[in-house]
Amino acid sequence: MKRSHIIIIIVLLVLFLDQALKVWVKTNMEYGEYFNLLGFDWARIHFVENPGMAFGIELGGDYGKLALSLFRIGAVFFLIYYIGELIKMKVSFGLLISFALILAGALGNILDSAIYGLIFSASEYHGGLAEFMPEGGGYASFLHGKVVDMLHFPLFEGKFPEWLPMWGGEHFEFFRPVFNLADTSITIGVLNIILFQRSFFAVDEPETDKTLDASENANDSMITNVAAIATEATELSTEDLAATDSVITGVKPDAANPENIDPHSAE
Question: For the chain, what percent of residues have pLDDT higher than 90?
Fold first, then answer.
């Protein structure tokens, strides 16, 4: 299967799961309602809506909401283009999956902002269930819808010490923000890039360095060969010189050395 097809499948799968959960929560739970997951107090499905950014962070006013929606749309188009370029560059598959998760999360929250205000009635705090495609129209205009959040993990809570400046005696909860699968997808993609950036952006050894190493090895080998040839040539020259002397003097090489003359040979 082509890499591009796998990326498309990942984006569509995350987008489907995100939207399916949001629609179920929107149409089956009242605003502010929650229930525990698997009986754990620290893991909840808690229905809230977010008019701003991820994890319940708000960007105030209608103009702020519009600016955020337009920014998200621009970011999605850039991500689609950038992922296409990364596929052409044949980068690490893990890097492609990370950007696919970020793209899927951005698309999920954009759909909320773009169309949820048009297709759903408003969800009031303990004011009944939202209606899909209400007769009087939705609760907001295009790009002004609210993002549905539902994942809540209050791992522990308590009160700050009285002596602590500013927050002394106040109640705190960790982890307080309520988020959704789209936020989770974006966070996983970003953390994956940060944690594995060395393997994702590993640079191969430059060809010039490899060429230099090969040249140095070749030079060392050449020097070794030349030294061996020179040594052999020296030995041959010595033997040839001795042979030449024997021809001229008529004395064998061994006879030229008095130590090699047999004392009984003269007799």
Answer: 51
* Maximum pairwise Cα distance, the chain: 144
d(CA 66, CA 56): 17
Q: Rounded to an integer, what distance in angstroms lies between the CA atom of residue 181 and that of residue 148?
A: 10
- Taking only the tens place, the pLDDT of each residue in 225-236 is 545 655 555 554
Q: Which member of 18, 41, 62, 183 is catalytic?
A: 183
Strand partners, 172: 158
Count Cβ atoms within 10 A of the Cβ of residue 103 and give its class: 0-12 exposed, 13-18 middle, 19 or more buried: buried
Active-site residue (options: 18, 112, 149, 240):
149
* The amino acid at 80: I
Average pLDDT over residues 26-48: 94
Task: Flag whether pLDDT at 259 surpasses 70.
Answer: no
Question: Side-chain half-sphere of 145: how many Cα atoms within 13 Å?
Answer: 22
d(CA 133, CA 121): 7
Q: Is 240 a catalytic residue?
A: no
Read off the DSSP letter of residue 211. H
What is the value of pTM for the model shown?
0.71
